Structure formats: structure tokens, C-alpha cells
Target: GAL3A protein
Amino acid sequence: MGKRVAVVLAGCGVYDGSEIHESSAVLVHLSREGAQAEVFAPNISQMHVVDHVKGQPTAEQRNVLVESARIARGNIRDLAQLDVKGLDALIIPGGFGVAKNLSTWATQGKNCTVCREVEDVLRAFHAAHKPIGLCCISPVLAAKIFPGCEVTVGHDTECDKWPYAQTAESLRELGCSHVNRGVTEIHVDPRHRLVTTSAFMCNAPIHEIYDGIGKMVQEVVRLA
Model:
């Protein structure tokens, strides 16, 4: 039987939820590896809703679980129902929802808090020595919860290709090690069983982002 991997989403849409291409890439690569994805999201309100045409917040209010169900085609459960004992690994795609809904990184940076249910799940997988895959901005969750861990969000020198490179310094200030990696590369922290890749932290062709996520998924499944 294939590995059962929990995928935790943060809504639907890059600016206020999970990045849809990253989420899809995770699900596609899990399927290719013969693993079974079990999709979860917290049943909480989004920080806000962004009009993805205008790039501006609106007055709407939306629920993270309800919005995440769009990506999961309705096959999703409340994160509160996740039982680590029945699962082999955890993957959290990126998107601003990680920094807005799963944590307060978007407004508080290194001084952020992590959503209680998300922190509990991360700690449960970590305590069970089960691998955790994180891409794009989601490595900040591990950096906040597991001081001393090793992650990558890409490169630490800001340029057109790496517009969010300052994130690396914030991670170092949390006491973790940031390792520079290209968009098609991953970094593995064997002590904490973390597998990270930069995804859309890099301005790169979408196939390169899919390739990097694919390597992350392959390694998570291998470690499971």
C-alpha cells in the first residue's frame, strides 16, 4: 500500500490562501509516487480576501476550510480531525495564506505566532519522526517552531530572480540555518526530517517550480 501523506492547505489563491500551482504540483507528484494524499485545512476565517485581478483586499469574508475545498475537489477534512498515527508524512504548500492564515508571518515576521492547530500538527509529525515537506514561504513555520532546523527558501541575496530573499535573514534571526538552493533543488535536514524547496519564492518558469516540488515530494515519500 502506498504512503499516506497529509497535505495541509491555507485557502485558495496565492495572495490570500494556498498557491494553487504549488498545491496541484504536490498532489500530482504524490500521485506519481503512488502515495495517497489526505487533504486538510483549519476551519478558521481567512485574515482577509484579496481580489486577484486588482491585487487589493476586498470586504468579503471567507473560510479557510471552505476555500481549500476548491483545490481538493471537496475531498478535504477539518485539520482538527488529523490523526498523525494513521499518516506517514506531512506536506504544506506555500502561498500567502501560510503567512496570513496558518500564521501571522505576513504582519509580524519573525515575531509571528503559528495557528494552534497547525503548530500541534507540525509538532506531532516531528515527535513521531515522520518527514515534513515545505515549499515557498511555508518553511517559516518550521523555523518558528523548531529552532536550529535547516531550511531553504531559495537564495539570500535579493534580485529580480529572488524578490523575497530577505526572508532568509529573518529565518536566521529565528535561530535556524538557511541554505541557499536553486529553484529545482531541495534541502534536507536529516535531524528534523524536513525537506524544503523554494518554489514561487523564485521568479522562474513554472516547469522548474514543478520540478523542484517534485524532488521535495519524492524525498518526503522516500523518507516516510
